[in-house]
Amino acid sequence: MDLKAHIRGVPDFPKPGILFYDIGTLLAHGPAWAETINRLADVVKAEKPDMLMGIESRGFLVGAPLAAACGIGFAMVRKKGKLPGKTLSHSYDLEYGSDTLEIQEGVLKPGQKVMLVDDLLATGGTASAAIALAEKLGAQVTHAAFVIELTFLNGRAKLPVPMTSLVSYDS
Predict the structure, then answer these.
(1) Catalytic residue, candidates 58, 78, 149, 156
(2) Catalytic residue at 8?
(3) All structural domains of the chain with their residue ranges
(4) Of 35, 73, 83, 125, which one's alpha carbon is 20 to 30 angstroms from that of 91?
(5) CA 128/CA 99 separation, integer angstroms
(6) What is the pLDDT of residues 141-170, one digit of tens each?
């Protein structure tokens, strides 16, 4: 199945000059979404992580059903102030400014093998920060997987782990 056929390009979103790749149309097509999860499950099964972790918010849409399909747990990485209880945070630089990600303390264990999943890899800044956050907890992030990779932004180069993408766009 051609997954690209189910991903909609939205011009000028969220601002003029940006072409946004929307997985909403992929999610809306049951067989295409099932195929997406199945293909990612093959990657997860080959890597054999103890846990998956995903980045707010579309990473949750990918990670939670994927973790369930693989019979493993899922950890949420969110923007600062969104998770209850004690959290560990990691601040990182963006093109214009900075941001902070958080994860709940204790959700990832020292030495645990973890795989990052998200819907899209663009510049790699947020994914790299999520990996650093997991490593602060002592987890070992061994792989990252994405539905979409925007290869022209070279985010792959920022990741300190091997990665897989199902669909790529060169512009």
Answers:
(1) 58
(2) no
(3) 3-169
(4) 73
(5) 13
(6) 999 999 999 999 999 999 999 999 999 999
Q: Is the pTM of this model over 0.85?
A: yes
pLDDT tens-digit series, residues 50-100:
999 999 999 999 999 999 999 999 999 999 999 999 999 999 988 778 999
Annotated active-site residue in 8, 47, 78, 95: 95
Architecture of domain 3-169: 3-Layer(aba) Sandwich (3.40)
Q: 10 Å Cβ neighbour count for 78?
A: 19
| Helix spans in 48-124 (H) | 58-70
Q: Which residues of 105-126 are buried (b: 16+ CB within 10 A; e: fewer)?
A: eebbeeebebbbbbbbbbebbb
Token pair of 8, please?
A: 């909609």
Residue 73 φ then ψ, to 5°: -80, 170
Structure token pair of residue 96: 């214009």
Q: Identify whether 105 is a catalytic site residue.
A: no
